[in-house]
Design a protein that fits this description.
The chain is an all-beta fold. The chain has one helix spanning 292-295; strands spanning 5-7, 10-15, 32-35, 41-44, 51-54, 60-64, 73-78, 84-88, 93-97, 103-107, 127-130, 137-141, 147-151, 157-161, 174-179, 185-189, 194-198, 204-208, 214-220, 223-228, 246-251, 256-260, 275-280, 286-290, 309-314. The strands form six sheets. Strands 1-2-25-24-23 form a five-stranded antiparallel beta sheet, with no helix packed on it. The radius of gyration is 18 Å and the shape is globular.
Length: 316
């Protein structure tokens, strides 16, 4: 039997060479990934084809978004109706697409960032999510701001919260966002090594600490799946082993129920370099997108594209 990863009720087997790309097509790297209601997998890339679609077996279906993005595509979210929200911190907008690639909406002024740390939307937004109860769009504005902004489902601004700091309700780098069925808002605060929970109006509820540079996050059933980024450091090596480049799973009370990822980064089974996007399909299989080119490959001589998408099939 092939090696398994994880623990308890969450055991996985690595699927070798899952994504089957057409000749001449490449990812460069994959900052985001999402799965629709039919188990089609949407991979956000920083290559020539920004959004690529695969079936769950990894067969390439189509791509879309060409000409709509910068080379800083950042976050990907899929809603209950299979529409997609795509954050681009290079052009400072959130775009909404139908699953067949039709552009439905764009929030923000393209290539018109607001003053850094000024609090107005946007300066390098990182991700977005939709509140199921009313369709509002919650956006983490995380590189040039320390804020969460809320817009209506038609793109009208409503309110914001958060500022720069380490206290409850403040952010160092709000990097990803998720919303559960009780309208609780989960915000990854990457450089503070925590996830903060808020109500729908931005009132602080609680925080989960000691999560190493949480980067990717997705809510699936009654668990939160998190991708932890590696430790900062010159390449190679990247700081101390055992810090980041792994997947952790929490229940909705903040209890960690599973963790997998080798202490040393790499491209082999059970290894990661720079998790940045995460998704789960209907069978519980996990897909991890990585910014491995930005973190490692771009610093190599010569620069090299590294593995940036992997699938882990759930076996228990």
């Amino acid at each position: 039997m092939a090696d398994t990863y994880g623990q308890g009720d969450f055991l996985y087997r690595h699927v070798d060479n899952w994504a089957k790309l057409p000749e001449g097509v490449r990812f460069l790297e994959c900052p985001g990934v999402a799965v629709d209601s039919q188990d089609n997998v949407y991979v956000l890339t920083r290559g020539e084809h920004p959004i690529m679609v695969f079936d769950r077996e990894g067969n390439y279906l189509r791509s879309f978004g060409e000409g709509e993005f910068s080379n800083r595509t950042h976050g990907l979210y899929i809603a209950h109706d299979d529409s997609l929200l795509c954050a681009d911190d290079g052009i400072h907008t959130i775009q909404k697409f139908s699953p067949d690639g039709k552009k439905l909406m764009e929030i923000g002024e393209r290539n018109q960032p607001k003053p850094i740390w000024g609090g107005d939307p946007f300066n390098r937004p990182t991700s977005a999510a939709i509140m199921p109860s009313n369709g509002d769009v919650y956006i983490s504005d995380g590189y040039g701001n320390s804020r969460v902004h809320v817009f209506s489902e038609t793109g009208d601004y409503k309110f914001s919260w958060g500022d720069s700091g380490i206290d409850a309700g403040q952010f160092m780098r709000p990097h990803n966002i998720a919303i559960d069925a009780d309208d609780r808002v989960y915000v990854v605060d990457r450089e503070a090594h925590r996830i903060q929970l808020f109500d729908a109006r931005g009132n602080f509820i609680e925080m989960w600490n000691n999560i190493h540079r949480p980067d990717a996050m997705v809510l699936w059933q009654d668990h939160i799946y998190v991708g932890e980024l590696n430790a900062p450091g010159p390449p190679p090596p990247a700081g101390a082993p055992g810090l980041g480049h792994r997947v952790t799973i929490y229940d909705l009370k903040g209890n960690r129920v599973c963790m997998f990822g080798a202490p040393e980064e790499g491209e082999g089974p059970g290894q990661f370099i720079a998790p940045h996007g995460i998704a789960v399909d209907s069978r519980g299989d996990v897909y991890v997108g990585e910014v491995s080119y930005t973190i490692r490959g771009s610093h190599m001589d010569p620069p090299k594209e590294l593995r940036s998408i992997s699938k882990y099939e759930r076996v228990r």
